[in-house]
Structures are given as C-alpha cells and as structure tokens.
Amino acid sequence: MADKELRESPSLSSLYPKALLGSLRKSGGSALPSTEFVREGVVVDPAHLAAYNRVCGFRLDDVLPATYPHILAFPLQMALMTEDDFPFPLLGMVHVANRITQHRQLRLDESFALRVRAEDLRPHEKGKQFDVISELLVNDSPVWTDVSTYLRRGGGSGEKTSRGQLAQPTPTAIWHVPGDIGRRYAEVSGDRNPIHLHPITAKAFGFPAAIAHGMWTKAHALAAFEGRLPEAFTVDVKFKQPVLLPAKAAFTTWSEGDGWAFELWNARKPKPHLEGSVVAL
C-alpha cells in the first residue's frame, strides 16, 4: 500500500467541487485504490472541540468523545474518495454503517498520526459496499479506529441481508431535533452535503426535507451514555431511515452483555432511524 503524506488537513472547500466533477465522470469500478493518506502531528483545537460537544450534546471536557476524531479524519476521507483513481463518485454514496473502537481515552493535549484508506469492496443487495478505515496512532500504535461503510447503489445482488428483530419502540427518551441541526453540525464537521442543509437543496436530491447527519445521530446517542462508558469500547451503528428535520424521535436503550444496545425510532410511527451497540473491550 502506497502512503500519501499530507502536511495539513485537505481543504474541504476545494474538495466539494472536485466531488461534483467526479459525479459527472465516474461510473464505478471493480477495485479500490491502494493509497493510504497519512497526516502526522494532528492536534485538537479546544474551541472546535467545545463547539462539537455543544452541538452533539457532550459535556465540555478535555477528554475527546469517541466520535470526535471522525471529524479529524473526514477531510482525509473526502480527499481519498475524490482522487482520480477512486472508482465511485462521492455524491450519491450512502453511509450505511459506522464502527468506532476506542482503545483508551484520548485527551485534548495529545498529538496523533492519522491514517485513512479504503478496503473490502464487496457486493450488497442494492449495489456495492466498501469500508473507509481511519486510524489515530500514538507512537505507531493505534489508539482509535473508525470503519465507515458506504453503499454505491446500482447493480446489486438482490439478496436480502438478514438482521435481528428490533425491540419495540418503548422510548427511554424523546429527542426534539431542531430543523437547523444539519447546518449546525455542518459547521463543526465540515460535512456540507446539501441534503443536510436546507429543504430546498435536500429536495433536489430526492428528500422531502433536510435530513440529519448520520454521525450526528450516532454522537448524540453516545452522549446519552456519558459517565457510564469504560475507557476502551466499541460503538457500532447501522443507519436506517433518515431523520427528516425537524423531527421528534424516540431513543431506546437497554443493557446487553458487557454493554448496551440502543435504537432511534420515528416517534410517530415504528420506523427505525438507527440501531447500535456499545461493548466494553
């Protein structure tokens, strides 16, 4: 695997036009690139961390929420997926799952190396799916790993994937999700996909309203477990129906083995937005 070393975080303002151009000329492929993007000396801006914590519902602290490093990795992920040798256009891909493993607590005053690569292109019932792997390392040892699974629709196997029966939507809490949460999360995450920003731009992509970012729903769910989380754990989610903004959603949690399971439902009808688990390592 060839490393591509970056001195600074890629500019998202230049990557979005590149993503739009890629949507016009890329049609798919049978192989992922072998390039791994690498950035050394990654540090956290305290003001940015505080803004992220406020938007997602975490308390203000010098310990990073497990979902926060995804924000650090996002520009490298975009850079990777907008390269000429990446087979799929970035626009139109669906983020279907995300698994984060935190091997220990990460602190605000630390410096990290960040590595991002794509792997495991495989069939999906609705097309093709693959994983984007992001890692934070300290002294060459991974302390945090993020596996984001993306779906490229079209030409799928047609085979249904089985899943366990979801629990009945008896809420532990009710979320009142404001209509501007997409814009607020975009400010801290850099993810300014138009489907999240405004009803008009979302409708241009086939949605009846703007939708919440999947990683915001994951972060807000994880915030519900603050004070109970072990130092090392895996939080794994599958994204289901989008959260149309504004929204009223029912959040459900229960103990399961060495951790918890959780789900987010449409509060008005039994349609799931998200299902996940937190498991201690």
UniProtKB/TrEMBL annotation:
Gene3D superfamilies: Hotdog Thioesterase. It comes from the Bacteria. InterPro entries: HotDog_dom_sf, MaoC-like_dom. Residues 183-260 form the MaoC-like domain. Pfam families: MaoC_dehydratas. Belongs to the enoyl-CoA hydratase/isomerase family. This is Acyl dehydratase.
